[in-house]
Structure formats: C-alpha cells, structure tokens
Amino acid sequence: MYISKDEKLIPINDPTGRWSELTLLPEWEEDIYDVYTVKKHGKWIMLKALKEQYRDDPKYQAIIEKEFDTRYNLAHANIVMVNDFEDVPGIGRAIVTDDAYGYSLRRLIDEKRLTPKIIHRLETQLPDALEYIQENHIMHRPITADNIIFTEYNENLKLINVGYDHRDRLEPQDTKQDIIDYGRLLNEVLDALPEQLPKLRRVAKKAADPEGTINSVQELKLALSQRSRTSTIIMLLGFIIVMLGALIAITLWLR
C-alpha cells in the first residue's frame, strides 16, 4: 500500500554553483539506495545514490557501478534513461537520470486515480518495454506497481530501476517470470477498477498462471490485441474463401 512520505530539501554545499535544490524523494527509496531530484545548471534531473551507511563500502560501490554500466546503454521511451555517473556534493557517487517526475502506479491504485489512458498504457507501453528488456538480455527486479511511474502531465509509462546485470542470454524462466509478473500486476489493477473488463481479465489470468499458455511477450501482445494464431488463421482462410468465391463468380459471368 502506498504511504505518503514528505519530500525533504537537503542542504547542499556546492561552490561551483552547478547543483541546487537537492530534494530527497522517500517514495522511490530502495533497500540500499535513496532517490533525489535536483537542479544541475538550472535543469531538473533525478539522482540515485547509495544510502549514507553504504557509501564507503566497496561491496555496495561495486553494485551501483554495475547498475550504471548495465543501464547506461538502454534507450527506450518507456524506461527512465540513465545519463551519467558522477560525484554529487553531500551524497557521493550517483546515477544521473532524466527527470521523470510523476506518480507511481501503486499510488494511483491506492488513491483510485486510474484512468482509461493508464490502462491503455499498461496494455501497450509496458509490453513494449518488457520486449526491449528481454531483447537486450537485461536482468531486472520484478515488475510491480511500485516501480512504474506515470508522468504527471501526459500519463506516459516509465519503468524505473530497470537493470542490474546484463547476460549473454536470458533463461526461459527469466522471460516467463516477466509474463507472470505482468499478469499479476494487471490483475491487481483490474481489482481496483469499478468496471469489469472481462477480456482483459482473461488475459491477466492466463499470463499470471505459471502453467498458462502465454509464454512470451509476443504471445502476450497477441492476447492483448484480442488476437491469436488461431483467429489469424481463420481470418486468412475466410479471406481466401471469399476471394475464391469472387473468382468463381467472375469466371461464370464471363462465360
């Protein structure tokens, strides 16, 4: 459940004048990380840095460096982009990302602020992001309502905290787990809606089932677009029958 936490302005001592208005964002904190918004040269960006108790520990320094290396080369419209890794006064080495200020899906669910546009983004933008992650063999934390942002003005979906390691290939259980997590997330969203969406619910249940028939992002996309291989074949057969019927009719008329 979302619990509102007050943002906190952090005093920053920067003789260069590059950094200002450093603000802690408790909503986005992780086990070992704090997340901030800050102005750099007057432009808002976001920072992800180790909590104070971990900053001088080589083990955790290696973790944040690995995450930066993994995320730096990712480029997708629905993933928060990583731009740099640098020292920031008062918080040490930090991953620098785009400013993606908005509201977590968790908060939108709990505050009953889901909109048709948000549902549509979950049907289209989230599978696109998952497909990109899998194509690039990125290991990541489970996709949950807590690590999805919808931007404040246009409600675009953004995944945060995507990628802590890169592999030469992903195992089938890794890609299947993404489908299961997606189904569970979609069920949670549908549970929060006053209206019933039976077609979307059927997809959610199939995706969330470890023994279900949806095993890839491509199959998920087909199911979400209310299509299947069978229906596609039926459509093609129907088209062929219609064309053959038209051809026979033309042949008979020409006689």
Notable traits:
42% helix; 6-stranded antiparallel sheet; 255 residues; 3-stranded antiparallel sheet; Phosphorylase Kinase, domain 1; Transferase(Phosphotransferase), domain 1; alpha+beta
3D architecture notes:
With 255 residues, the chain is α+β, with helices and mostly antiparallel strands. It has two domains: 8-97, Phosphorylase Kinase, domain 1; 102-230, Transferase(Phosphotransferase) domain 1 (Transferase(Phosphotransferase), domain 1). Helices cover 42% and strands 20% of the residues. A six-stranded antiparallel β-sheet has the order 1-2-3-4-6-5, with helices on one face. It is elongated.
Short description:
This protein is of the alpha+beta class and 255 residues long. Helix content is 42%, strand content 20%. The protein contains seven helices and eleven strands.
Write the SSE topology.
Blueprint: E1 8-9, E2 19-24, E3 33-40, E4 43-50, H1 58-72, E5 82-88, E6 92-97, E7 102-104, H2 105-110, H3 116-135, E8 138-139, E9 148-151, E10 157-159, E11 165-166, H4 172-191, H5 198-208, H6 217-224, H7 229-254
Antiparallel strand pairs: 1-2, 2-3, 3-4, 4-6, 5-6, 7-9, 8-11, 9-10
